[in-house]
Amino acid sequence: MNAIETNNLTKYFGAVAAVDRLNLTVREGELFALLGVNGAGKTTTIKLLSGLLRPTDGTARVLGYDLKSELPEIKQRIAVSPQETAVAPNLTVRENMELIADIYGGDRGRVLTMLEELGLKKVEICRAKTLSGGWQRRLSIAMALVSDPKLLFLDEPTLGLDVLARRELWKVIAGLKGKVTVILTTHYLEEAEALANRVGVMGGGSLKICGTPQELMEAAGTDRFEDAFIRLAGGEMP
Predict the structure, then answer these.
(1) Are 227 and 220 in contact (CB under 8 A)?
(2) What is the pLDDT of residues 67-92, one digit of tens each?
């Protein structure tokens, strides 16, 4: 089963099409990176697929459910880790995770599992506000996973982190592959190249091209992923 299937999915803000007849398929269990310059439509796409915005036109199925008529079923099975680290600063790491488990009716036993799997056990009694940016981002992802989602949206998960913290978080994200379907948005092209099974490049609200990093480099006629992105995102082909 495909985790996501869209058919001409469209979102207008006034006269501007932020997402324009988007046709996208994401396979169950893969890590899919959605790339594009600012204003390409990535964030709006994520908001549409996660039910934060209603589409103007088109259809989509998420985890087999219709986005328009079965949104409650979708929301029960997805999680979003937003750009802004959404943690309660005065609660400990473990308390943050237990709070989310209680809100979503999850099993507190899964909190222990996530503490172990995401390497948070050694800081579980630390208040979130005392953690570095990298640790807070790791906590934010752990909180999103506590409800055991089938589909996880990671919106710029390493934004603003130093190179060491970014690479540590890469290990966490790579460990999710095959366990949960992940939609990753990022401006770090090396991140998408290193982590993603497939990459979609958006521009003007639509999908310009989709494939593995190697396939995108071949399509652009270059052996550097950054050069391939520049050519494909800008519409420049060899």
Answers:
(1) yes
(2) 999 999 999 999 998 877 778 999 99
